[in-house]
Every structure is written in structure tokens, then in C-alpha cells.
Design brief:
- Two copies of one chain form a homodimer.
- The first copy, chain A, folds into two domains: 315 residues, 2-Layer Sandwich (BirA Bifunctional Protein, domain 2), CATH 3.30.930; 86 residues, Rossmann fold (3-Layer(aba) Sandwich).
- Chain A is 42% helix and 19% strand.
- In chain A, the strands form three sheets. An eight-stranded mixed sheet of chain A has the order 1-5-6-11-10-9-7-8. A five-stranded mixed sheet of chain A has the order 13-12-14-15-16, with helices on both faces.
- In chain A, helix 1 packs across helix 13, helix 5 packs across helix 11 and helix 6 runs antiparallel to helix 11.
- In chain A, 45% of the residues are buried.
Chain lengths: 426, 426
């Protein structure tokens, strides 16, 4: 039998999982600090739910990449490709849910797409959303979560913010009719530049004059104040008002890593108002570390369109965040263990030492029947464990143990109590 | 469109997720305290891997219940039905892995089986295993993990321990030939009693005399010492020696919630030595909370049988553990928030209060544009949030806020600093 994983999926080994858990735990801690509640929706959904024309499934590309399966009852099912559709389904299925409903969910999603560098068929999404309020306070809170998360991870970031209503207003001023189509083109601005966007808009029948008018408004460093005098239609004005209210709240909350960027569009068609994306200020990673916005229509559409259920949220990109952290930190340890204990004819007493260290909250490994001190040291070294304890009969008599720093090679004769104090103070 | 989850899977709402996270975090904390490293294997595996005749897939029931899918390249894949097979595949694929390899993994597994009460098609497994050593120290360490986890969860449990080699030795003494088959019958002893087992063994051609001899050894409260004089074949003696060594180590480690139970068999065919199961001492839940044992052959078999890679591990039953905890604790809160802040014409200042509470590590929710104090109190109450803060212009002048205990209705005029101190000391 050939030993391999399924194509496009991979194992995450301990040294990487330790970093992943660090990020996931930070996200969880901050989400809960902001009062978001955990929800878990299943990996398997009815195909009908995934194919509903409201979520990312509205894009035929995403739906084409859905893993399809059938259960023994011949029901057509699929593996979820995002968490948002499942959230909308959950809210729609639970009409008595108290609103606003603030929830987070983290877990694997699946896409049966072509394999390129960095594209995998199973990856984690980490989403935070507030359902059931149109108040810009909710948008401000989500953006405050962003800033707190990246502060905690010690990453310097900038949050770019825009509003779809304002973008629609600008398209209106430029008399560009098919706004959805145009926004998908504008979303590529960063990648293909003004020339590329001009080209593609032309292909879609937009005139040179319309494009010129469009770029007179969508240009670097243009301020909300400038746009205020130039965008006079209702939708555009509403977008500007929302942005002003949002920036006001952010100021009250002490959120300062935010800038207005009129060129930010976000690709998904389901956004209806605020949109934002987070980028690292330093380093090689240029892809966004998180992104989101307001999606006021999807839940209501799931419910048959009779009720409006507004929503705003953000998705964190676990992989780019881990990449940025890897640039900064050494990822060496293949185990959480801080100490590895090696007995020399003292198994019984060493087991006591190991349990005492663990009782004091210090992650400890014990030599599991490995012979000889040097083999044991090699093993500890290869796992990146920072300290070893060697316990022979001599030390036993003195009621002490030898603590060895695996990097410096320095050895000290200490009591277990002294070791606990030393490790805890590091 | 009909709004529902796929058949046999379910959403886990916040009030339940808060409990689940408590258990998962405790498991994670203790696994890492014992130096086990995290690993994540994919949900999707090649069907060939799952169908290998070594893991739980060796039982045709399990394989029949495997969700099958194909990717766009027409490769036959399956959703994993346990984590052990994927672990064995990972170890076999990574021949340079440093042994012993101590890892834990927690995540969803899938079975497309008939739906009965308590049987679902997606459920979490939480596994800890040590790969690459035959030392009973590894078995002792795993059982110590069990005791530490349940102590931390404040659940009184008993760990029943047995050994497959000893059971095989007893079957040998009773001259029962098909040992694998017999052990699957013995595993039902607790459910169908001595009479049921007698019946089933007879059906399999075991004679009354053989069964009598078997039950003279497999009886309640029989000790290892008694068995020592009666089981004289090699395999049986080896089992007794392993158990004695194991109990010795457990004593050295201060693990005292362990008993020897000769009737414990464990159903899976892949166990080769130590087997154990954990039961709650009190309450209505009689199913085991965790179980495991030694499986020395599976990884080697995956590698083609040329190398022996011994292993020992345990799987925790998240659902029964949560059931036992639910019997003991009130599960009321639908959010992690400890405080809900209600502004009366003080949005700007209230946002400052909210952020100050969060900065001090107190999970806080803010009224997101909800009108009126009583509606806001109702909302906080329905989510089970223990405190609200009401901030009006009067309080603002005094630089204080009103803290309301939602259970007692008691209100106090306090500074934010005083509130932080109060909540943190609870």
C-alpha cells in the first residue's frame, strides 16, 4: 500500500501546531473578551444549503469546488467551503435566538480545487460575526477585536476600511450600470493596477469617460471630506455617513490603526456596507491577514426574504498570520515539554520528581525506557527541549538533581523546588 | 428551501460549546503538562488508508459506515472514522520521526451509521498516544494523564485495568481456540452478564467445561496473585508481569484511582497488551468516560510488517464527560460575557468604560443600539450575563457607574476600578 495523505491535504506536525495553537488561543481569548460566544456547526451540510444563491456558493467557482458526498439514505451532501453559510443557516433555523447574536467559530473548511503553491483542500477559517443589528457600533466592535488580536500577537498592522454603499455611489456618479460586475474588477486594483482595471472595465462596455470620472474619485489618499462634496446620490451619502459614524466610535474606543481606503472593494458579492482588510506593516507577506464587512441580506434571504437580519463580521487568515509570525520567531520546539528527566538507576525516585514538576505546572517528559545518558540527551536535543534533569544515586543522597541547560551546556545541582522557581521566573 | 442540518449531524449552541471548550481546554492543558505534542491530521484520507485491515476499519461495520467521496481527479477518498488510523499512517510516512513520539489530537470523526438516540454522524475524538516504546512507563504515564484530567474536572472516577496477554493466557488455559472471537464476546460481559456470554461462547462451539474453566479465572475480585498460580503459559505470565510492573510505576507516580479488573476486554481487535477504561463513581452515566490500551502492531503493519513500532494510548469520550458535568453544574450562560454595559445618552463615555473593562481581562458586552433600559436588561438576562452596568449622565458626573447584580437585583454605585477588583476576586 502506498502511504500518503489524500491529495491537497496535509498533516500539521507538532512544531507547526504549537504555533497554530498559539494563534488560535489568542483569537479565542480576545473573541471571548469582547463577549463573542462559541458556536460549532457541522462539517457536513445538505448540498441544497451550500448551493443556495446567497453565500460564497453564489460564485459558481466555489460551488464547483465543493466536495460532494451522499449518505446511506442517498441524500446529497457537501463539505462546507466557508463558515458563513452555516451561520446564516443556523440563525435562520433558530428564529427565537436573542439578537444581536455575537458568535465566533473556528474550524476546517474544504475546497476541491486545483493544487497550487499555498492552496490546499482543507484549511481553517476563524470567523467572528454579530448578527441582528445595523448599528455601526457592531462594525466598530469587530474592528476593535482586530486591533486587540494583532496587538496581543505583537504584530504591527494597518486596517484599511471602506464602504460598499460609497463605492456604489461612486459608480452611480460615473454612471457605471453593472455595479456587481464592476466591483469584482475594482477588487483587483491592487493586483493589476489602474491600467488593468481600465482594460477590464472597457471590456465590460464601460466608456473611457466613465472610467476617467471613476478614477477621479477612486484615487490614493482621497479623504471622506473631499468625497462628501462630490458624491451626492443617496446611497453614496449613506456610505459616507456610516463611515463617519464608524470612525467616530473607533476613536472613542481607542482604536488607532485604522485608515480609510477608497480603493478597497472585497470580492464577495454578499457585502452590503462596511468592508475592511488587515495588512502587516512589515515583512514579506503582502496578502491580507484578516478581512470582512457587513452582509445585511444573506440571513434574511435564507429565511425567505420576509425579514431583514443584518450582520457584520470578519474572517482571520490563519495561514498568513502564521507565516508573518514565522518570519519573526524561531519555531524549534517539537514538544511543549520544558524539562526532560533522565534517571540513572533511579526510576522510582525520578517518577516522583517528574510528577512534582507537573504538579507545579511545568510540562515535563520522562525517559521512557531509553538506555544511556547520551542517547537520552540526543533525544531531548532533537525535540528542542530546553532543559534536562539527570538523577543519579549520588544526587539522590543529597536530595538534589542536576539541571542541564541544553543550549549552553551549563549544569547546576539544585533541589526540585529551586528548579520550579527558576523555570517559572523565565 | 427547507432549512435543516444534514441528517445525523447537529449544531452545538453556545451554552453547550462553553462546556465543551472547558473540557477540551482541560484535556489540552493536561496533555501538554505531560509533554504530549499536538498533531493535526486531515479529515479526508485516501479510502485505501481507511480500508487497511489494521485499524478500526478491520471491522467491516466501521468500514461500511465510512463516508465516501471522490475528488475532481476521481480519487476515492473517505472521511476518517477515528484518529488512530491517521496517526499510524503519519508515523509510517515519517520514518525519521524521533521515538518515542508523544502526541495528542482532538477533532471531528465521521460515521454514516443508523441514527439512534445519542448516535451522531459527526463527533469529536480526543486521543493521546505514545508511539515507539514497549516500556510500561509509557502505559503508566497515560493512566496518570487520566487521573490528572479527571481530578482537574473534579470528577471522581475509577480506572479499570487489564491486559490482553493475560486474557489470552486464560483462554489458553481454558483451551478456547479462536481468541479474537472470544474476546469480542467477553467484551459484552457487563452488558449481557455471565449467562449471555456463556450462550454466545456455546454458539461459537466452546464446550461447557471450557466455559466453566474460563469463569473460574474470570470472576469478580480475583487478584493478580491468585491468577499467578493458575495461569502458567508464557503469554499469560507475560501479561501478569506487565500488570505488576505497571501497578508499581503507578504507585511511584501517586496514581491511586486504579483497580485491576480481569473482566475488562475492550472490543477493538488491535489491542495487544494493557487495556483500561474509566468510569464515573457517581451519577447516572454508566458508559465509560475514556478508554484505551496498547496497540503494538498497527503502525508496523502499515509499514509493511518489517519493523515493530509499539504504541499505547487513550481516547476520551467528550460526550459522556460533558453529560456527567451537566449533572453536576448549571449550564446557563449563552455568552462568555460577565458584564453588559447599557448607556443612557452616554455612548461615547460608555465605549471608554467597555474598553477599560476588556483591557483588564473582563469579558464585556455593550448594548449595540438597543433602545431603552428595560429591553437591554431583558436581553442581558436571557443570555445569563451575571452583571449589567448602567451609565447615565448623573453617574458620569460622579465618575462612577451603577453595577447591577442580575440575580439578586442589587445595585451599587462604583468606579470602574472597583468593579474590576470585585469581578476579579469572585
Amino acid at each position: 500500500m502506498e502511504l500518503q495523505t489524500a491529495r491537497g491535504v496535509r498533516d500539521i506536525p507538532p512544531e507547526e501546531m504549537i504555533l497554530k495553537n498559539k494563534v488560535v488561543n489568542t483569537l479565542k481569548e480576545i473573541f471571548e473578551l469582547y463577549g463573542f460566544a462559541p458556536l460549532e456547526t457541522p462539517v457536513i451540510e445538505r448540498y441544497e444549503t451550500l448551493a443556495a444563491k446567497f453565500g460564497a456558493g453564489a460564485s459558481s467557482d466555489v460551488l464547483k469546488e465543493t466536495f460532494i458526498l451522499t449518505d446511506q439514505g442517498k441524500r446529497k451532501l457537501g463539505l462546507r467551503f466557508e463558515l458563513t453559510t452555516s451561520l446564516a443557516r443556523y440563525v435562520a433555523m433558530n428564529p427565537n435566538l436573542k439578537l444581536p447574536f455575537k458568535r465566533y467559530e473556528m474550524g476546517p473548511v474544504f475546497r476541491d480545487g486545483p493544487i497550487k503553491l499555498g492552496r490546499v483542500r482543507q484549511f481553517w477559517q476563524c470567523d467572528v460575526d454579530t448578527i441582528g443589528t445595523k448599528s455601526m457600533l457592531a462594525d466598530a466592535e469587530i474592528i476593535a477585536v482586530l486591533q486587540t488580536v494583532f496587538n496581543k500577537l505583537k504584530l504591527k498592522v494597518v486596517v484599511k476600511v471602506n464602504n460598499r454603499k460609497l463605492l456604489n455611489g461612486i459608480l452611480e456618479e460615473a454612471k457605471i450600470k453593472n455595479k456587481e460586475e464592476a466591483i469584482i474588477v475594482i477588487d483587483k486594483l491592487n493586483k493589476i493596477g489602474n491600467d488593468g482595471v481600465t482594460e477590464e472595465l472597457k471590456e465590460k462596455g464601460v466608456t473611457a469617460k466613465q472610467i476617467e470620472l471613476f478614477f477621479s474619485l477612486v484615487k490614493e489618499n482621497i479623504t471622506l471630506n473631499e468625497l462628501k462634496s462630490k458624491v451626492t446620490n443617496e446611497e453614496g451619502k449613506e456610505g459616507i455617513n456610516e463611515l463617519e459614524e464608524l470612525f467616530n466610535y473607533l476613536k472613542n474606543m481607542g482604536v488607532d490603526s485604522v485608515v480609510f481606503d477608497i480603493s478597497l472593494a472585497r470580492g464577495l458579492t454578499y457585502y452590503t456596507g462596511t468592508v475592511f482588510e488587515v495588512f502587516a506593516k512589515k515583512g514579506k507577506i503582502t496578502s491580507s491577514l484578516a478581512g470582512g464587512g457587513r452582509w445585511d441580506d444573506m440571513v434574511g434571504n435564507f429565511m425567505g426574504g420576509n425579514r431583514e437580519v443584518p450582520a457584520v463580521g470578519v474572517a482571520f487568515g490563519l495561514v498568513p498570520i502564521m507565516e508573518v509570525l514565522k518570519e519573526k520567531e524561531n519555531v524549534e520546539q517539537k514538544t511543549p515539554a520544558k524539562i526532560y528527566v533522565i534517571p540513572i538507576n533511579t526510576v522510582k525516585e525520578s517518577l516522583g520528581v517528574v510528577q512534582e514538576l507537573r504538579k507545579n505546572g511545568i510540562s515535563t517528559n520522562f525517559s521512557l525506557g531509553k538506555k544511556g545518558v547520551s542517547k537520552n540527551l540526543q533525544y531531548a536535543n532533537s525535540l528542542g527541549i530546553p532543559y534536562t534533569i539527570i538523577l543519579g544515586e549520588e544526587e539522590l543522597k543529597k536530595k538534589k538533581v542536576v539541571l542541564r541547560n541544553m543550549k549552553s551546556g551549563q549544569e547546576q545541582l539544585l533541589t526540585v523546588k529551586q528548579i520550579v522557581k527558576k523555570i517559572k521566573s523565565e
